[in-house]
Amino acid sequence: MDEKERESSGLAMGRRGFLRAGAAAGALVTGAGAARAEGPDPLITEVQPWATGFGDGVDATPYGLPIQYESDVVRRNVGWLTADVISSINFTPIHALEGTITPQGCAFERHHSGAIEMRKEDYRLMIHGLVDRPLVFTYEDLERFPRVNQTYFLECAANSGMEWAGAQLNGVQFTQGMIHNMEYTGVTLRTLLEEAGVQTAGKWIYVEGADASSNGRSIPIEKALDDCLIAFKANGEALRKEHGYPVRLCVPGWEGNMWVKWLRRIEVTEGPVESREETSKYTDTLEDGTSRKWTWVMDAKSVITSPSPQMPIKHGNGPLVITGLAWSGRGAITKVDVSLDGGKNWKEARLANPGQPMALTRFYLDINWQGEEMLLQARATDDTGYVQPTKDQLRAIRGENSVYHNNAIQTWWVKSNGEAENVEVS
Ligand SMILES: Nc1nc2c(c(=O)[nH]1)N[C@H]1C(S)=C(S)[C@@H](COP(=O)(O)O)O[C@H]1N2
Ligand SMILES: [Mo]
User: Fold this and answer.
1) Which of 14, 174, 332, 398 would be a feasible disulfide site paired with 355, CB 3.0-4.6 Å?
2) Is residue 139 domain-shared with residue 272, that is, in the same domain?
3) Counted domains in the chain
């Protein structure tokens, strides 16, 4: 192989060869690459400040925060949604996250009476009611039961609740961001219920938190004994205060409201308590004005996170990665279809990993974009065969006065300049 051949094959080791290879690769993909080809890139040819001295020592940040350049990837709230920030909600920046795990530091928060601060030492969990042995557990007690690790999404039933009547909020963070997905470590609720001995008359449990709101909810005993988790770690570390430190309940696939934080009491009961949170709230108003209760499961849903209003296309024509998230409270995601034309034609997206039950699934569709306008949609299918509905299909049953459980297909209108807008294609 002579010099020339080595250079063109990309094997040349000299600076000239490296520059040429870099420029060629860049030019293939982006406009910026083409500009680089015109002259030397000082980021490559000049010694940069970060290479002329030392970086931070190992103890500069004993517990690290994201680098300053990522400081816009944060939870955000919508001021007009609630009267104050104590009983309020904010939204996960799902437009800017990748993979499926939500870092606790930017996972949305929903509090009915604010996030409380409790020491582990002050934690008590009581199980009583229709049990053979009423019990109280300390945090240390919980640590001595066999542990499990499970990844689950938590979606607030009100997620997308502002979008019922039409396109409202301009960003996937706000339209679909009442969701997070974490790997929980804890003890199964079944283990603790068996320790207490559930009597045959016990058909429900009532769970409540230690905060002033208590956020009490009734859960059928079948679900309690099936897959609920008493969690004390998330993503490997202690739960953050805002997510229920030191202990929260996980109710996989079911609406976020049931995932009681700062869990303090589990009462085994004959029937449901019919608390505020399951009667005046978290019920679904139907087309005819009546309300449906006990709609616990979060049905299959998906959304494109990029491009989206907060993630415009900035790189011009050529390869474009379309990506998003899909999930189902009834099981695993088996398929996600993506439409570029508002639902007329569909292409099957690539799942980054096989769908896991009741956890987020990441999908991709890699296209060659030539600046054409698009009406981007994603449509999820789960392993029960259920297909995510259009807004019209959902409204035919639910009317427009619903708040909760809006799992309709979302549309982003991507313009030829790469900007995207929340629009409705019913
Ligand atoms: N004790 C208690 N648990 C609670 C709440 C609360 O206000 N108090 N809010 C519920 C609601 S409505 C939701 S959507 C989830 C939100 O969990 P997160 O704040 O970890 O995102 O917690 C639920 N558990
Ligand atoms: Mo919620």
Assistant:
1) 332
2) yes
3) 3
pLDDT tens figures, 48-96: 999 999 999 999 999 999 999 999 999 999 988 888 999 999 999 999 9
Domain assignment present for residue 31? The answer is yes
Instruction: Write out pLDDT tens, residues 118-172.
Output: 999 999 999 999 999 999 999 999 999 999 999 999 999 999 999 998 999 999 9
From the alpha carbon of 282, which atom of ligand 1 is closest?
Answer: 12
Residues lying with their CB under 5 A of ligand 2, a single-atom ion: 110, 156, 256-257
Q: Closest residue (by CA) to atom 23 of ligand 1?
A: 257
8 A C-beta contact, residue 269 and residue 218: yes
Domain-ending residue, one of 228, 262, 292: 292
Find the CATH number of the domain harbouring 173.
3.90.420.10
Residue 340 lies in a domain: yes
In a shared domain, residues 313 and 275? no
Of 257, 258, 262, 298, best ligand 1 pocket probe by most atoms within 8 Å of the beta carbon: 257
Same domain, 274 and 309: no
Region 206-213: mean pLDDT is 98
| One domain, residues 193 and 244 | yes
Asked if residues 329 and 316 have their Cβ atoms less than 8 Å apart, the reply is: no
* Residue 232 and residue 100 share a domain: yes
Strand 263-269 to 124-129 pairing:
parallel
Query: In terms of Cα–Cα distance, which of 370, 210, 199, 332 is closest to 268?
Result: 199
Ligand 1: does its nearest atom lie under 6 Å from the Cβ of 248?
Answer: no
Closest CA to 301 of 107, 148, 161: 161
Last residue of a domain, one of 292, 323, 353: 292
In sequence order, the β-bridge partners of residue 306 are 323
Helix (H, G, I), strand (E, B) or coil at 270: coil
